[in-house]
Amino acid sequence: MVGWKRIVVTIGEKIGKSHLTYAQGASAELCAAATIGVSSYYGLPVSTTHVLSSGVAGTMVAEGGVSNLRKKTITSIAIAWLLTLPVTFAGAAIMFYLFRMFA
């Protein structure tokens, strides 16, 4: 719940160079809902924010090509995606060893 406004602004206004239309928003939301539903059915963990931002990026590309994406924002999102798994692995391992030492 921390930082929700920044996430909403990034997804809605900063992924693409043009404004997000109602059709793009609906398409991205429906695609995200379907992806999350299928993932939940199969027990696969997914990030709702990652799925939705990918959907918005897809609608921006469909509207105006790859040039309709803001390179800086897409790069930041991609770096965050790449770092999420290894940083979480390391953090969880460190916490586990610390808790095990004191338990």
Which regions contain 5 or more consecutive residues with pLDDT less than 50?
A: none
Shape: elongated
Mean pLDDT, all residues: 92
Classification by helices and strands? mainly alpha
> What is the alpha-carbon Rg in Å?
17 Å
Strand content: under 5%
Query: Count the strands?
Result: 0
Task: Calculate the terminal CA-CA distance, rounded to whole Å.
Answer: 30 Å
Outline the structure in words.
The chain has 103 residues and is mainly alpha-helical. The protein has one domain. Helices cover 78% and strands 0% of the residues. The chain is built from four helices and no strands. The model has no long low-confidence stretch (mean pLDDT 92).
In short:
This protein is mainly alpha-helical and 103 residues long.
Key phrases:
103 residues, mainly alpha
Q: Any chance you could write out the topology, listing elements then pairs?
A:
Layout lengths: L3 H11 L7 H20 L6 H17 L6 H32 L1
